[in-house]
Amino acid sequence: MGLALSFTMVALFAVGIFGTTMYNLVAHRMERMMSESSGQLLDQTATNLETYLKGMRRVSDTMYYSVIKDKDLAVDSMAQEMNLLYDVNKENLISIACYTGDGELVEAVPLSAEKTGLDVTRQQWFTKAVNQMENFHFSTPHVQNLFDDPSYRYYWVISLSRAVELTTNGSAKLGVLLVDMNYSSMEQLLEKANTGTDSEYLYLMDADGEIIYHPKQKLIYAGLYEENNMETANWDDGSHKEYFHGEKRLVTVKTVSYTGWKIVSVMPMSVLNVGMYETRVLFVLVLLLTMMIIIILNQLVSSSIAHPLEKLNDSVKEWEAGNMSPDIYIGGLTEVEHLGRTLKSTVEQIRKLMEDVLMEQEEKRKSELDALQSQINPHFLYNTLESITWMIEGERYEDAVFMISQLASLFRISLSKGKTIIRIEDEVKHAQNYMNIQKIRYKNSFQVDFQIADEIKDCCTVKLIIQPLLENAIYYGVEGMDDEGEIHVTGYRDGDDVCIEVRDNGLGMSEEMVEKLLTDNNHVPKHGSGVGVINVHNRIRIRFGEGYGLEIESEPDEGTLVRIRLPYIPYSADIQEYLDGRRLERSGGAADEKN
């Protein structure tokens, strides 16, 4: 399951990254295409506008070079040629007029009656022409207000003005030629380009940012709509992105030749988003379909890999749980099958090695135990028999009989029919027999008492572990204390453990001596039986494990306490045979081996 999920997550992540990248590429491509489309529209509109303006320039050039330059105003009239030129171009013209540099009208068609009080020298088209002697000047749209029209009609025009040279009586003087173009002709040309939505449009402005044409021009004049034309006037030709009134827009600029005018295309990015909606839907559907296919394929592929691995993992878990002969799964792909065969071979080899190690350890434990038990010195027996001899010679027959009976009981328990594990009750009785003999030998020069809880008397113990501690308590504790020596033997249960304590009020030991007593063979007592505390400690650990053995507490002149710690294991024949044969691995009523 984990393998299938991992494969699926990685695949879905890769598909998601790929889909997102492709969508961004398509979105950028569509944005570029729309930008190019706007540029093409602007190019075509600019070409049409330039063609229109070139026609007006030709009218101005024809009027100047073919009429004005050939006339001497003192003797010639230009009315006939001017009327003829107007008639040919009247669809796009409102009027043609020629003024002197002082603002005096020379000739005008189709109307020639100037309005009263008119001063053309103050009008922008006139001053621009005079100041820009060798250039054309195109004005912004305005109402033609130079002549009285009997029909009272007024026209919106764009004035094309230029400085000309007028000849009178052979002398040249400054003049201004004015051609008023019909604004509606150019408006119609631009309106043809604005065939899109209200939010997508183009407009025309001069080099200073003044709007010449805008599809919402009336709203702009009324203050109900705003355009970012003043900032756009500073932009170079090409596509730009802007935020205007909280809306992101794609703005494309194209400069019209000869005039400095700029055609501006405005396209809100929301239009692009609307255009991308179907693309997004298509991408999402394709992405979802691809993900479904990948999930299905991953499930099929991963199951062919994961299922055999899961079975193999179950076999390993069974092995970890303690089954040393698990049924190792062999199957699946070639690699998984090879892994199963290798694991099965490894398990068999490990099991065989463990069996060999266990056999070697058991042999070693038996050898160590035999070696430790063989260390018991017959010195105690010699001394006891010598004491019995003295009693008989002194005719102390009852004491001699008591000593013999105690010695017999002591050896009977010591032998225990070759058993190593006996009841605590028998071990305590052995210790009592030993102390009864020692008390007689030492003429009751010390006191001893046993306080053993009934609940532990029927528990298992290694034999001959209390007697060596009592022997050390006599030789190194209370010997020579002149009837003031005390030895207390206490047994009780401590949780899953059994504790037997041997306490004396003798000389005690230093902390350094206590630390070395259970680790350094050089500190094993050599008096008495010669078994010593380290012997007892090692025999307990060999049989029950590292967590058991002796604990020693002592201070100089404060006495010594030696605590035997054993597992709480009720005695039975089966348990005794098992413990005599190998270390205990506790379960059920027996406590687990401590580490």
From TrEMBL:
<keyword id="KW-0902">Two-component regulatory system</keyword>
<feature type="transmembrane region" description="Helical">
    <location>
        <begin position="281"/>
        <end position="301"/>
    </location>
</feature>
<dbReference type="InterPro" id="IPR033479">
    <property type="entry name" value="dCache_1"/>
</dbReference>
<keyword id="KW-0472">Membrane</keyword>
<dbReference type="Pfam" id="PF06580">
    <property type="entry name" value="His_kinase"/>
</dbReference>
<dbReference type="InterPro" id="IPR036890">
    <property type="entry name" value="HATPase_C_sf"/>
</dbReference>
<feature type="domain" description="Histidine kinase">
    <location>
        <begin position="465"/>
        <end position="570"/>
    </location>
</feature>
<dbReference type="InterPro" id="IPR050640">
    <property type="entry name" value="Bact_2-comp_sensor_kinase"/>
</dbReference>
<keyword id="KW-1003">Cell membrane</keyword>
<feature type="transmembrane region" description="Helical">
    <location>
        <begin position="6"/>
        <end position="26"/>
    </location>
</feature>
<keyword id="KW-0812">Transmembrane</keyword>
<dbReference type="InterPro" id="IPR003594">
    <property type="entry name" value="HATPase_dom"/>
</dbReference>
<dbReference type="InterPro" id="IPR005467">
    <property type="entry name" value="His_kinase_dom"/>
</dbReference>
<dbReference type="InterPro" id="IPR004358">
    <property type="entry name" value="Sig_transdc_His_kin-like_C"/>
</dbReference>
<dbReference type="Pfam" id="PF02743">
    <property type="entry name" value="dCache_1"/>
</dbReference>
<protein>
    <recommendedName>
        <fullName>histidine kinase</fullName>
        <ecNumber>2.7.13.3</ecNumber>
    </recommendedName>
</protein>
<keyword id="KW-0418">Kinase</keyword>
<feature type="domain" description="HAMP">
    <location>
        <begin position="303"/>
        <end position="355"/>
    </location>
</feature>
<dbReference type="GO" id="GO:0000155">
    <property type="term" value="F:phosphorelay sensor kinase activity"/>
</dbReference>
<keyword id="KW-0808">Transferase</keyword>
<keyword id="KW-1133">Transmembrane helix</keyword>
<dbReference type="GO" id="GO:0005886">
    <property type="term" value="C:plasma membrane"/>
</dbReference>
<keyword id="KW-0597">Phosphoprotein</keyword>
<dbReference type="InterPro" id="IPR003660">
    <property type="entry name" value="HAMP_dom"/>
</dbReference>
<dbReference type="Pfam" id="PF02518">
    <property type="entry name" value="HATPase_c"/>
</dbReference>
<dbReference type="InterPro" id="IPR010559">
    <property type="entry name" value="Sig_transdc_His_kin_internal"/>
</dbReference>
